[in-house]
Amino acid sequence: MEALAVALRNLVDNALKYSPDQPAVWVEWGPENGRVAIRVRDKGMGIAESERNAIFRKFVRGSAAAAGNVRGTGVGLAMVRQIVIAHGGSVRVESDPGRGSTFTMLPPASGRV
Ligand SMILES: Nc1ncnc2c1ncn2[C@@H]1O[C@H](COP(=O)(O)OP(=O)(O)OP(=O)(O)O)[C@@H](O)[C@H]1O
Ligand SMILES: [Mg+2]
Description:
Blueprint: H1 2-17, E1 25-32, E2 35-42, H2 63-67, H3 76-86, E3 90-96, E4 100-106
Antiparallel strand pairs: 1-2, 2-4, 3-4
Helix pairs in contact: 1-3
């Protein structure tokens, strides 16, 4: 579905932008509680726990943006969340500051993404 490709593209863009010293990212489709999760993983700057909710809001940019002098407007993740929720799914982030982040998109419990 096209909107989900846009969401995936945004996560991959971020993974690349915020891992300038480790410019490889991993995208995988893997099982999670009987569903197929899409995970985008990087070995970049990571995201402080205190920022992990706020970055999904529109126009919110985190410390990785300032630290890496990375351009952007802070709308990517807000769009990702909107798209995923519109499909009945969810998105979340896990991160180890200084070591990297993993964004996971999950389809709705009952069906397709
Ligand atoms: N993979 C990541 N690693 C570290 N920080 C991230 C990552 N993805 C997002 N962030 C943080 O979350 C903030 C919000 O991300 P979002 O994609 O919404 O906006 P942006 O990348 O700053 O700008 P835009 O996507 O609009 O060009 C970023 O400014 C950055 O601080
Ligand atoms: Mg972005």
